[in-house]
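Known limitations

Structure tokens in this collection are predictions and should be treated as such. Users comparing against experimental data should check residue numbering before alignment. To illustrate the layout, the record for Nucleotide-binding universal stress protein, UspA family is reproduced below. The input appears on top and the generated tokens appear beneath it.
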Amino acid sequence: MTTTQTRHGIVAGIDGSPGALDAAHWAAHAARRFHEPLHLTRVVDARRRITGETPHGPELEEAEQSLDEAARAIGNGYGDLSIERSVQAGSPAKALENLSRTARMVVLGPADTTEMQSVFTGSDVVHVANHAHCPVAVWRGEPGPDEPDRRPVVVGVDGSPLSDSAVEHAFECAAFFGAPLVAVHTWPEQSTLGGLTEKRRFTDWTAHEQHEAAMLAQSLSGWCEKYPDVVVTRCVERGGPMRALLEHSVEAQLVVVGSHGRHPFTASIIGSTSQSLIHRSRCPVLVCRDR
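Generated tokens:
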């Protein structure tokens, strides 16, 4: 993935949960596709210690066991994959944020909070997705079919710089995964009519739909030429992006979105598609920020 510095490795955060094990298996799949090493890391949540102090005794033993379990979850089909391991102490969110400075991608298990809980109690997964220096994949859904996976990569497109970053990463993922790409652009009727009124029942939307389709085509311009082997389907839909992307996630192997990195409380007020997908998507979500 194009960045201002060279980044290496797929980092998978391990916490011993079943979701983290599924995420580790997906991370191994991504690492093989991207020809990158896989880094399994367990952060012992010892926030009263000096961050970076090496865990010892029962803590270290439990952490090593969780990494062993993650390695077993990956299975025997990745014998050619370089796997690194590490155990460190401190805040899991901060440790993973630091690792993201040099990683190509960070992969995490599903959020262990609801959307509302993340507002009031916080969520390590949401924090990392909002502050990481590389794309963050959050595992969601059920394990997919054996390779090759023919399900599409889906990307949300709204024409913003963050959306441009998501489009770039989505094309790259589709190319490396050997998957088709579905580019989804939505537009709300009320933005055109000044509100939800009876007028919408008698409006001819053809011209507006053509305008929105042209905007989507412009957002994809250049990437189709760079990745000619990626089969692209363009979807222009009326309505909100969250609903559309949630529906597409049912049949997708990955949904890619940009993120402003809003605090969960702010996101709960003005809305955040990425944070809603982190909690509700039916497949893994790749959150991209422009760093």
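For this record: The chain has two domains: 7-139, 150-286. Residues 7-139 form a domain with the Rossmann fold fold (CATH 3.40.50.620). Please report discrepancies through the issue tracker.
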